[in-house]
Amino acid sequence: MTIPNDVKITDELVKAHGLKPDEYQRILDLIGREPTFTELGIFSAMWNEHCSYKSSKKWLRTLPTSGPQVIQGPGENAGVVDIGDGDCVVFKMESHNHPSYIEPYQGAATGVGGILRDVFTMGARPVAAMNALRFGEPDHPKTRHLVAGVVAGVGGYGNSFGVPTVGGEVNFDARYNGNCLVNAFAAGLAKTDAIFYSKAEGVGLPVVYLGAKTGRDGVGGATMASAEFDDNIEEKRPTVQVGDPFTEKCLLEACLELMASGAVIAIQDMGAAGLTCSAVEMGAKGDLGIELDLDHVPVREERMSAYEMMLSESQERMLMVLRPEKEEEAEAIFRKWGLDFAIVGRTTDDLRFRILHQGDQVADLPIKDLGDKAPEYDRPWTEPKKPAALAANDVPQADVADSLLKLLNSPNGSSRRWVWEQYDTLIQGNSLQLPGGDAGVVRVEGHPAKALAFSSDVTPRYCEADPYEGGKQAVAECWRNLTATGALPLAATDNLNFGNPERPEIMGQLVHAIKGIGEACRALDFPIVSGNVSLYNETNGQGILPTPTIGGVGLVADWSKMARIAFADEDEAILLIGAPAAWGTHLGQSVYLRDIHGRADGPPPPVDLSHEKAAGVLVRGLIEEGVVTAVHDLSDGGLAVALAEMAMASGIGATISALENTDPIPVFFGEDQGRYLVTMPRDRLDWFFNTRMKDAGIFAPWIGTTGGAELKLGNARGIAVSDLKAAHESWFPRFMETEFV
Questions:
Q1: What is the pTM of this model?
Q2: What structural domains does the chain harbor?
Q3: Which long-range contacts (CB under 8 A, 24 or more apart) does 391-399 make?
């Protein structure tokens, strides 16, 4: 059958598809002729940065991805980790940055929908979601609109679908003015003997389309996500997908019922690049060809071309290879749930990807070459320049109490209650902590004691100053947040958000961040089992801060012993585990310098991974033994902010000792890593100091005592806990009520 050249392929058309001239020449060499318009679209979808990882593959291979609990690492829809008793947790994080900037509600909503499908495609029922959101400076004219739309989109989809949003991040910085970040995380539970994969097996078997109908929304979405923005951004609005969480809920139930029936050989979510990517991945992984007849694809719009159908990113769709004898039973399940079920193709033994449409063969391509022969670049990179150390006498002064109140009432230090109260955090009835603590915790349903902890972390300003240390710190902080609840950290997923990798300085950031992430993951036994790379996050040449988000999962063996951040009682001892001798020393890149003095200088705090591990093991042991009554890790704002958060969570104040002949600024606002605040009854102090602290080799001074209605930091004036709360809770609602003219 001949392939008609329906559209003339010009240099301009190739460029519009995000393909460089040498990449197009590679296509010509592979297939020995000019591609059809549909084939050009297929190559564009499979070879763009979003799908092929062509700039990052080389470095991603250096990450640790295996471990005793790891069942499935990178390469599938999501990672899978064993949690014992025949159960496993399935999880992943992905970006929906470009779509969310263009159309914030649908961009964020479909980001949530896509990550949920990645999880339940593997046979897992979703039990938790998180999101990491980053926006431009608050007084930028677009920021409030983006915040409102993205938060509504996350809540609108997740709440309707019925999954609790248990944690996340929201941050502001001018570097995100032209490119917000929306990173969505989902986790689900499955049985270890009932995990479903995307590798097709068997020749001549039916390829089945499942779910919602195909429309024109999202055509070219993956290619758009692999390009910079410019002043014509509004023209890209049609490339944003439209989601329907109620259809997705039906799709979840239908898929799980179908999987239980034994009908599924392989199944793949139709995510980026839709029908193209799902079909190619299933066939290529199984060393099989795929033939599709688009005349059988359910559509919701008239006169759709083959190009549009193959590149549509309409939501709530799956592709499956079916056991033929189960066809009738499988179709009945999907019809019952009000969803489309259509046999749209078959597996073949010739390693070709053939597309038929209205009697014509519009594509005939080597299926493995679409993925395996995608360009892979070793892009040039430059060594990131490290900032000079702060001079020993360069400690700008300010009133400690005033500074703390200002940090708590700042865009990045204020409560995120306005955000998370729009999410359903309690649906399914298994959530054990509300957002605002160190990590979200969800019971493992059907087990009397187990729970899973989830956290998402990165400090982009650290990564900008030193990508290697920033990458280490993102992993360490995520690991620390899980540990602070009493969870044993199991594994992580990453979402690497950077600017244009064709710029050597940006590629240098990516390379060094991955090196830091890899080193920390190895040292902390915290493998990366899934993830996503999002590049070209810049507008008119202005890149975002390097933002390698780390999402982590930990296992709480007995949730009745789980730790929380709130002070539990009056007159308890407060200890600073993992402190340096001066309690706090490092002001470089601190929020104190940035938000109190308008400075962004100095190196970020270094991460001593052996110290980090030893401190975490000590804290986790104390939680398991029931010795400590509250636990909180230290991060932005250092000791002062962490103490304030514990006081605000409980309504109980504290009095902290003054270190004589020591500058209080680095003590209270230094951001030294590897530190935890813990409280315990005072009658346990001798035991702790004489046994546990001594054996651990970790410094953990007794720094103060809980009690009263004020937080008093050394010689600074006391601040009423009610005033701390008022400052902390007021910024976000006030910002969102502001009308910009």
A1: 0.95
A2: 7-47+199-375 (3.90.650.10), 388-414+563-741 (3.90.650.10)
A3: 395/587, 395/663, 395/665, 395/666, 396/593, 396/596, 396/597, 396/599, 396/665, 397/665, 398/596, 398/597, 398/665, 399/716
